[in-house]
Amino acid sequence: xxxxxxxATKRRRFPRGSTRxxxxxxxxxxxxxxxxxxxxxxxxxxGASLSLPFLxxxxxxxxxxxxxxxxxxxxxxxxxxxxxxxxxxxxxxFDNFAEALADTSFWAGMFRVFIxxxxxxxxxxxxxxxxxLVLDGVRRRVAARFRIVLLLPxxxxxxxxxxxxxFLYSPVVGPLSDFLQVFGLQxxxxxxxxxxxxxxxxxxxxxxxxxxxxxxxxxxxIPHEIFEAARIDGxxxxxxxxxxKVPFLRGSLVLTSLLAIIGTxxxxxxxxxFRAVTPETITKDFTPAMxxxxxxxxxxxxxxxxxxxxVLGVVVGIVSTIIYRFTNRIES
Amino acid sequence: MxxxxxxxxVSRTVHEAVDAPTPARLPSKRRRNPNVQRSANEAVGxxxxxxxxxxxxxxxxxxxxxxxxxxxxxxSKEQLYTTxxxxxxxxxxxxxxxxxxxxxxxxxxxxxxxxxxxATLGSVGLTLVALAAGYAIAKYHYLGRGFTMGxxxxxxxxxxxxxxVPSFVLFTQMGIYDTIWAMILPGMFGSFSVxxxxxxxxxxVPSELMEAARIDGxxxxxxxxxxxxRLMTTAGATIFLLxxxxxxxxxxxxxxxxxxADKWPVMLxxxxxxxxxxxxxxxxxxxxxxxxxxxxxxxxxxxxxxxxYWRSGVTMGSLK
Lengths: 332, 320
Hints:
The complex is a heterodimer.
Chain A: H1 2-13, H2 18-27, H3 30-48, H4 52-72, E1 75-79, E2 87-91, H5 95-102, H6 104-137, H7 140-150, H8 152-155, H9 158-169, H10 175-182, H11 195-220, H12 224-232, H13 237-248, H14 250-265, H15 269-277, H16 288-299, H17 302-331
Antiparallel strand pairs in A: 1-2
Chain B: H1 2-19, H2 25-31, H3 46-73, H4 77-82, H5 93-102, H6 107-139, H7 145-155, H8 160-174, H9 181-184, H10 191-204, H11 207-215, H12 220-231, H13 233-249, H14 252-257, H15 266-277, H16 285-305, H17 307-317
Helix pairs in contact in B: 1-17, 3-16, 5-16, 6-10, 6-13, 7-10, 13-17, 15-16
């Protein structure tokens, strides 16, 4: 009687511990079971303690900064007496956010980045998709050789990639201007109207290998019987690609686009490096992340910078939700 | 909303990824058999040549900039500006290397060393912390386990830019601003790695084996260190590699948290040269080019050698 009751309570407390259940039903005497259950709890607690280092570090380096961001954003710091006096923090409510929402240079940067993202991300996806489909269409051994070459850009550190492209674009050391001059084209890659295409090309160069790898992986997992069936029904290669392969890739496409958009809205490294060679085109507030960096570490307005980063975080969240909803609707 | 909806995606790719390493070996054996060599969706005839043409074009696009980097780093300063960028001139790679490693009393070697130290210590720490936490969440039943998982998933949605300013305030208060700890410690508690370790532990560590170890008298910690860690080697290698590469490439974090040039990692150092390059007396372009090549080669070697691990972890690593 007690044994069954205990077994029942255990089942409720430990719904997933299968070994435990087996033992208690075959175990017999209640005292043994009670001793065992105390022993189990101790065991689980000991096991749980293995996650303590992570939890402490996570609390310190993730939770506390997030809480501090929320706190800093509703305060304003003022230094009294020509900056020599002690800084005082005063509670200002949502003033920083109101300022952020009305800040034209912040939203101009956001607009720039947004336009850039909705052009470059789909373009990069298309190239990756074509790459994956073509790679899937050739002999496996050939594909394996090409794959490693196509993945090279992914292995290059992002900063080095940016610097190499800056040199390639450069009219002094780079071969690109000379090459285009052969066709009578005079292109300044660092001018105001070309700079985004220059950055976009380098982003696509760095990203396609990775996206291709994910898509190629999904393509490899399609059961081959489907292709054979389609061929028997008279479908050509293009038809197979359009109606079988691409729909199969939708999951990977959504995932990689989402990641790319989230990253692109926060773009910082590439424009900052371009600023080193062309400061007149790329201002210090060129992208939202650059403006946050500038406000926090050059101007020294930590409170306003945190408010701006919270706004950026919210925008990123909203945009990814919209994309996710939108793609889900198409799917269903 | 995004959090809940992201989850199935994440778990699917992680499962694929974690399961991938072992089965991935099978096709390579099959490939040697000529009868199965032809993949079912292989194109024939004209379309085959079109496809090869597209592939060749994409390969040139992908490898071209690297080719230029290799060629440019073998050229002397004068030749860099006067000769065709895509073919070798006079071979002066060794001179460039000696310039690179002697400029400013060999600060480049110091940067490389810093990068290796930060990446190694951070990755070892992260791997241990993440494996322990993932193992605990997967294999034990305790109060707060679901809550921990919730926190981990929710933290995927925090954009990196949001963390940098408050972290600066925190590190200043803690006194680790402008020390190597600002580079090593924060990266050791990445929630994504814990997620990966948890998913892997669920599949790779059988409860029966842990039970057997208990009957033999092993304590829980001993079971983790001598059994759990060993069974989770693959996940450990993936976590280590992904973080090692990420910390080798990191730029914004050291830009904000390290002031002294002697503590910089190599990427930040190269950036400082690029920034100074145009307005300084001494032309630094050649140094930046050779330095870029030197700091890229270890990554390419590592990535090619450990393909098996990162190709599986690639989907997950990018989530952060």
